[in-house]
Amino acid sequence: MRARDVLAATAISASALLVAVGAIVALVLLAPGEDRPVFAGEPRFVVTWAEESGEIADEQRAMRRDGAVAGAVADLNRVVELPRHVEVRVRSCDFGTSFDGWDERIDLCVDESASARDELAEAGDPDPDATVLRIWRETVMHEAAHALVQLHDLEHEGSEEDLADSFAAWMLLRDGDVEDVDALVAAALQYDVWAGLYESDTSDGHSTDAVRAANYACWVLGAHPERAEELAPVDSLRVSRVPGCADELRRLERDWESRFELMDAGG
Ligand SMILES: [Zn+2]
Description:
It comes from Aeromicrobium halocynthiae. This protein is of the alpha/beta class. It has ten helices and four strands; from the N terminus they run H-E-H-H-E-E-E-H-H-H-H-H-H-H.
């Protein structure tokens, strides 16, 4: 073995050692129950509830009783097909509700309910408990869209965040179920509250809260003009846009229907 080869072999075994040490550290750092569960049967979205205590457990109980998360996931499983299971984990977390592309898992961070309730109450919402639960239904749909983009390699123009909002609107308006429409109305009103509370910031890839509020309000009105009074607080929705909302919604529906035809065809 030449000296250079010895050096290379030493480097390889050193890096192999580092990988091994890294794997051991990762195993040790993994909290019990944090490793990826294996789900049987046809691939689908699966709701799981992390074992929590105190206020977080109370929030989980309220969500479970309400059924919004389970209902949203059942609707998703009726409409979309998946190549692999996607866990929808209801849990406490520090990093914010998101789709974890590495583990292919949606984390719904229950901690966010309390702050959302306070903001909505402050803004004059007469029943912030109910509004927060409704918003979870929209959140599940939005995060599911990120999962679909990754698992189906969905091509799209514009930002993935806008696409995720349009998917949520499509899912929540397709059957005309009142709790679905309520969820989208609640999300529009929450974005409107956030638009007033926080600086408009698009650095996280999302449109501004004002734009998201206006989009949701417009698409709801496209299907349900009778909800106009509830959506009146959303002043980012320009009056001149409203007559075109039904057409906007139709375009959005056509886009999603054709994406799903492509998926069915293996595209
Ligand atoms: Zn998103």
